[in-house]
Structures are given as C-alpha cells and as structure tokens.
Amino acid sequence: MDARFTAEQDEIRRTLRELLLKRCGPEEVRAAVGTADGHDPALWEALAGQLGLPGLALPEAYGGVGCSATELALASEELGRALAPSPLLSTAVLSGPLLLALGTEEQRSKLLPRLASGELTAALAVPGTCLATALGLTGDNRGDWAGGGRAGGVQAKRSEGGAWRLYGQVDQVLDGHSAGLLVVAAHTGGFSRSRTLLFLVRSGSDGLVRIRQTGLDETRPQARIQLRNVEAVLIGEESADVTGALTAVGDTAAATLAAEAVGAADRALERTVEYVRQREQFGRVIGSFQAVKHRLADLYVQVQAARSAAYYAAWATAASDERVGGLALAQALEAFRVTASEGVQLHGGIGFTWEHEAHLYFKRAAGDELLFGPVHRLRAYAAEQAHLFDSGEVAV
Q1: Cα Rg of the chain, angstroms
Q2: Domain 244-385 coded CATH 3.50.50.60
Q3: Hey, where are the domains in the chain?
Q4: Could you give phi then psi for residue 386, rounded to 5 degrees?
Q5: Which fold has domain 123-240?
Q6: Distance between CA atoms of 195 and 100, rounded to whole angstroms?
Q7: Do domains 7-121 and 244-385 have the same CATH topology?
Q8: 3-class SS letters over the chain
Q9: Going by C-beta distance under 8 Å and a sequence separation of 6 or more, which residues neighbour residue 268?
Q10: So what's the architecture of 7-121 in CATH?
Q11: Cis (ω within 30 of 0) for the bond into 127?
C-alpha cells in the first residue's frame, strides 16, 4: 500500500485551501450562516462550478470527475479547517451516492449531472433523530428507525392511480430548508409487510413545509420537514435493498466526516498554538510553561492519530472490503472535541466569550457528536460488528 498522495490530490488540497483562506474567514462564516440559505451562494458556485467538488466521487458518465472517496475526504478536510458552511455533505456525500446506488437509469441521467455541477442541491431526510443509525454507524439500520410496523416518522401510500403520497414529519434534516431535492426515507407496507423505501420530493411540492431550525452549530443548518399528502417519486424499485445502500453510503460518509473533523481539529490546534505563543502571564508567554506544552503535545498526538485513521478509512472504502469508517469517525470526533475544549481553556478569558472564533469550533465538535455519534456508541457498534466480545473459547 502506497500511502503517499498523488500530485492531483495535493493540488485539490492546495487549491481549495487557497480559496478558503481568501473567502471563508470567521467573519465570512458568521455572515453566511445568517443568510436564508445558511451558506454563501457565491462560495458554493466557486466550489461547484470552478472546482467541481460535488461531482468529485461521481462517475464521469453522470457528469462527475470519477475520483474516489479519498479525494472527497481531502476536500472535506479543507472545508472542515475553515468550517465552511456548504451543502456538500448533504448533496455529494449523503444524497448523491444513494441516488447512484438505487436510482433507475432515467433518474441517474436526469439528476446526477445537476448534482455534480452544483446546479441542484439535495438533502437526506430520515425519521426522528436517527441519522447515525440509518447510516449503520451506531446500530443495525434494519431496526426500529425504519418503522417496524409502527406509526410515526413518514408513511408512504400509493394512490389508486399508482402515484406515491407521503405523510409525516422529519426533524434535523441537514440543509433541508434550502435543498432543491429531498431524498426521504418512508415506511410502507403496514405492520405485516413494513419496509423502508426512498423517495424523491421536489422543493415547492404541494403540501411540503420546510422550517429552518435553530441549532447548536449554525454552520450545519438543519430544518424540520413536514409532508402533508405530498406527491413523491420512488427511487429505483420496491425490491431495492435500501438498508444495504444506506450502510454502504454511511461508511463512506463516516470516512469523509472523519477527515472533515480532523481538518477542523487541526485548525483549532493551530489557532491555540498561535495564541499561547503571544499571550503573556507572569512576565513570559504562556506557551513556554511546561504544563501548557504537555497539553498541546497530547492534542497534537490525538489529531495526528485521527488523521491517520481518517485517511485509512477513506482509502478502504474503495480499495478494501473493510468498513472502518465508524471507528475513524469516533477517533476524529473525540480528537476534535478534546482539541476544541482545550482551545477554549487555553485562550483564557477571551476564549470564554461567545463571539470568539474558538466557539465556532467548539460548537461544531459538539454538534457533530450529537448528529453522528456519540463516540462510545460508534465504537460499541463497531466492536459488535467485529464480534470482539462474543463469548466462547479464544483460539490459541
């Protein structure tokens, strides 16, 4: 295994970092999240139109670049460093791959090129607060989140004319307020034949209500989606293995999110190191105190370990049968949480002010663990899948 990045991969990182340094500082981030879209449309146009980020991991046949998850993870790492609010996660990491895996050829050819160009954005809506479970990261996604014959979530019914109609409500839909296309997981079949299918819902559909929610992390805008007899289009066939596709997409998404968290943690650590080199206490810079050096050294080790895990997970999605995205995500989220918390502490009094940049990273770390974790559940499910603690004799 050659762990070195190619010249093209290095170029993606360099170009993206240069763009974000110019156009996505803390003040620009705060201004962007305050807009109706929750992100800067001009920056999204640059990311999509000039750099082609939404189509990085999509096949060339559908307007994509044809790269692997590694390139998408490297791009996400740079976006994480800047905490750049954009619909890349919801469009290119969650929704696009599901449409590619399950959609009919007509659906793929009509929608994927528009997603790849950034002209159309998409959002994945799953019932309740079950995104991590639906993606197979913290539990079996063939379980209760998918309905289990119960009412609740979103229900799909077919009319006499053969059209599908959706009823229900979904909370915590990433970029759900602004996406032009919704990929909605809905229950159908009643108690006896309950199953989960995925449906396409266009923005502006009759009976569709979208309400942007106030969240801990404003850089990841979320919405509540209400569906009141909304007409929808089934993705693929009724016999499609929806949970299997969600699990596969979840592993790639976890690797991408891990890289994004590593980028954010690395930048938070950089900013903290810069500060302790300047702040003076008792006649000397606080970075010269041994206790501070030890704390920063521990953070550095955690971030580097998480980076290695994230890179390996991204590589494994395309080059191996291993599914280690959940473990890499656990490592990255833990490193990010600790680094962001220590950053607030080591900035002293100014770090506790709500307006300080350190709080943007702290809230992203806390919000990501709420959405995609928690860390102990990610690890527990990975151990369960690996049969790590199964009873029985240990082979010698």
Answers
A1: 21
A2: no
A3: 7-121, 123-240, 244-385
A4: -85, 0
A5: Butyryl-CoA Dehydrogenase, subunit A; domain 2 (2.40.110)
A6: 21
A7: no
A8: CCCCCCHHHHHHHHHHHHHHHHHCCHHHHHHHHCCCCCCCHHHHHHHHHHCCHHHCCCCHHHCCCCCCHHHHHHHHHHHHHHCCCCCHHHHHHHHHHHHHHHCCHHHHHHHHHHHHHCCCCEEEECCCCCHHHHCCCCCCCCCHHHCCCCCCCEEEEECCCCCEEEEEEEEEEECCCCCCEEEEEEEECCCCCCEEEEEEEECCCCCEEEEEECCCCCCCCEEEEEEEEEEEEECCCCCCCHHHHHHHHHHHHHHHHHHHHHHHHHHHHHHHHHHHCCCEECCEEHHHCHHHHHHHHHHHHHHHHHHHHHHHHHHHHHHCCCCCHHHHHHHHHHHHHHHHHHHHHHCHHHHHCCCCHHHHHHHHHHHHHHHHCCHHHHHHHHHHHCCCCCCCCCCC
A9: 336, 339, 340, 343, 358, 361
A10: Orthogonal Bundle (1.10)
A11: no
Q: Which pTM was predicted?
A: 0.94
The rounded distance, in Å, linking the Cα atoms of 388 and 103 is: 36
- Tell me which amino acid residue 188 is: T
Parallel/antiparallel/unpaired status of strands 208-213 and 181-188: unpaired
Per-residue pLDDT of the chain (396 residues; tens, 9 = 90+): 566 889 999 999 999 999 999 999 999 999 999 999 999 999 999 999 999 999 999 999 999 999 999 999 999 999 999 999 999 999 999 999 999 999 999 999 999 999 999 999 999 999 877 899 999 999 988 877 765 545 568 999 998 888 999 999 998 999 999 999 999 999 887 666 778 899 999 999 999 999 999 889 999 999 999 999 999 999 999 999 999 999 999 999 999 999 999 999 999 999 999 999 998 888 899 988 999 999 999 999 999 999 999 999 999 998 888 889 999 999 999 999 999 999 999 998 887 787 889 999 999 999 999 999 899 999 999 999 888 887 654 444
End-to-end CA distance of the chain: 29
| Euclidean distance between CA atoms 396 and 386, whole angstroms | 18
